[in-house]
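Record 1 of the preview.
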Amino acid sequence: MSNDIITDEEIIEEVQSESADQQLQRVENVLPQNLTILPLQQRPIFPGLAMPLTFKGKEMVEAIKKAVEEQDGYLGLVLAQEYNTEDYTESEFYEHGTLFQVLRVNEAAPGVAQILGRGVSRFHKKRVVLVKPALRWEVQYHNEPEEKPDQDLKAYMMAISGEIKALLQLNPLFQEQVNMVVSQLNYDAPGLTMDVISNLLSSDAEVLQDLLETYDLHERAQTLLKLIKEELEIAKIQKRINQQIEEKVNKQQKEFFLREQLKAIKKELGMEKEEGESEIEKLEKLFEGKDLPEEVQKTVDDELNKLRTLNIQSPEFNVTRTYLETIGSLPWGIHSEDNSDIKAARAILNDEHYGLEEVKDRILEFLSTVIKRGAVSGSIVCLVGPPGVGKTSIGKSVAHALNREFFRFSVGGMRDEAEIKGHRRTYIGAMPGKLIQALKRAGTSNPVIMLDEIDKIGSSFRGDPASALLEVLDPEQNNSFMDHYLDLPYDLSNVLFITTANQLDTIPGPLLDRMEVIRLAGYISDEKVQIARRYLLPKQLKEHGFEPDEIDITEDALRVIVEKYAREAGVRNLEKQIRKIIRKATLKLAEEETIDFTVDKDDIEEFLGKPIFKSERLYNKSIPGVALGLAYTSLGGATLYIEANGIPGQNGSFKQTGQLGDVMKESASIAHTYVRSRLAAFEAEDIKNYYDKHQVHLHVPAGATPKDGPSAGITMALSLFALATGKAIRDDIAMTGELTLTGKVLPIGGVKEKTIAARRVGITNLILPEDNRRDFEELQDHIKAGINVHYADYFDDVLAAAYPDDDFWKV
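->
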C-alpha cells in the first residue's frame, strides 16, 4: 500500500488511454465472487473511468486495506439508500453496484482513506455472507456482450456524441473530461463508452442508479440520451439565467436605492407596515381552527398584539414568536379514538408477549375499566420487575391495544426539575418540559406516556424531579398542569401514564401512592425457552439478513443457553447469547458457503465457550452450620447461602461478614440471641455451652455483594442452630422468613421471585412463613408444580421441616 498523496494525474491518464478492448479484457479476467462492500452516499459510479474517492471511518479504512492485501484491490461500491453514520454495515443498500479496483491508497489522517482506482464491471448481490467486521456479499457480475453493435445502437451512439459536443459548448467546466471521452468514442464497445459518459452526468442519484441497473444496451442508450438532453437543457437554462442576472445587477442596485428612499417616504407618511407582519400572519394561520381554552386564547391574542408592537430585530420578538409557535404546535382538543374491543387488546398482548398471564390479566382489567368509563383519570400504572422482563415492550403493547400514540422518555438519573416542568421564559434557551414535548410529538392529547426507570430519579440543587411528578401523576391536579415555559394550564387527565421500575424501595412514598403497581416477577426456564424460540431467534435472524429456515437453534440448545449462560430473571442477556451464536454462524456460513445450519446442544460450548453458570448450589452434601436461603433483589429472586463456623476458646464472641446491611445485621443478632436461648434447654453440656466456649463467625457469600433485609432471619437461626448441635439439615430445602426474639416467623415479600429462584437451582422443598400461604397458593400452576412447601408459624416448624426424620431438637 503506497503512502503517496493522490495528486498524480499520470495514473488517471494512463488508465483513460487504455482502449475499450483492453478494459473489456480486464472484465473477462477471473474476479472474486465474494466482495467487500463499501457505501456511496452521493451517487453511484460506473465502470470505465478512473477516479479518486475518499472514505471515512476506521471500519471502512480497515476493509480497504484488507481488500488491497487479499483481493488484488477489488472492492464493491454500492449506493446507500439510507446511510447509517454510526455503523455503515447497518445501512440500506441497493442490490446493484460496481466492481472497483484500487490502484493507490493514501491514509490521509486516522480513519480517513483516499483511494485512486477504476470502475471495472457491474454486479448484483446474490446474498450477504458477512456483516462484521466488514460487510461482504456474494455477487454475480454482468459483462457487456462481445458482438458488434447493430445499426440502431450505432445511431444512438452518434446521437449521444452530438449531444455531448453541444453540452461542451455550453458548459466549459467539463471541457477536458468531455474532450477525452469524445476522442475515445468507440462504437464497437458502446457499453463501456456509455458508462464513461454516465460518470460525467449530474443527474439525481436514483436516476443514475436506474441507469447502472439497465443491462440492455438499447434501453441504456435511450435512457442515457434522454439524460444528456436534460443536462443540455439545464445548461441552456443556466446560461440564460446567468445572462439575465448580469443584465439585472445594475438594475437591482438602482432599485435598491429607490426602495430605501420609498421606505423612508412611507415611514414619514405613516403608510409603512411592520417588517414582522409576514411572521405574524404565519402565526395567525397556525392558530386557525384550533379549539383553544378561553384562558389560552386570551394569552395568544395578547402575545400577538405584543408582537405587532415589536421590531423584528428585537430579541423579544424571537422569544415571543417561539412561545406562540410552541402553543400553536400543541394538540389542543385533539384526541385519538380508543379501541373498545377488549378481545382485540387481549390478542395483541398475547401476540407480542409470551407468558406473564397474571400481568396481562391485570392490564386487561385496567384497560376494560378505561374503555368502560371512557377516561383514564385516577389510574397511573407502575410496572415493577427485574431488567429484561418486558416492561417497556408491555407499555408499547398497551398503547397498541388502546390505539393510542406512544411516547417514552427515561427519568433515570434526572436531577433537574425543569426537565419535567420546563424553564421559565426569562432564561435564554428556555424550552418546555418533557411532557409538553411528548404531547407535541405525539400529536394527540391522550397518548400513552411511559416514564422509564422512575426508581432511579434523583435530586440536586436544581430541584427535585420526583416532587415535580407529583402534580403530573395526581389525577386530582393534572387536569390543569402548569408547565413553567407555557405558564398555561394543560389538561393531562386523558394521558395514560405508565411508569417502570426495578424496585419500589427507592421511589418516594407520595409518588408511589399515586400508582397502581403491577409486578413482573421474571421467567422460569421453560418460558424463556419459548420466548427465545418464538420471538428472540426470529428477530435476530431477520436483523442479520437470514431467512427463518437458514439457521436453526434447537429447543435443547436454547434450554442449555438459558440454564448455563443466561440465568437472569429477564431475557436481555439471553438475546445477547443468541446474537453471539448467529454472528459466529454467519462467519462459518461465509467460510463454508453452506445454506442450512443447525445448532444443537452439543454445539453450544463451541459458540459460547465454557458455561457461565454450573450451579448456584455451592455444596453437594449437608454440612452443619450451612443453610440455603432465598432472597429478592432488583434483578429478581436469588438463592443465598448462610454459613456459620466456630473457633474454640474465644469467650463466646459473635462476628458477621458478607457486606451485610444494618437490617440484616440486626436479624443476625436476633437469630444469635434466640438460638442461644433454645440451646440452654439442652442437657448435653457441649451443646448448651457451645456459644460460651466458641467464637462464632457468620458469613453470607458472596462477600463483595451488599445485602440487606430481614427475610434471612430463619436461615441464619437454622445455620447457627445446626452449628451448635452438629446436625446438618437436609440438602434439598431452602427457606425465607423474618424471625423475632420469641421465635415467631413473620411474613416476607417476593414469594413469586423466590420460588422461581428455587426452581432454577432444582430445590423442591421450601420453608415459607405461614402468613405467606395465600401468596404461594395464588401463583400460577406452572410455577408451583413439583414444589413442596412447609409453612412455619414458629421456629419449631422450621426445625421440623429441616429435620424431618429426627426430633432431637424437641427439648
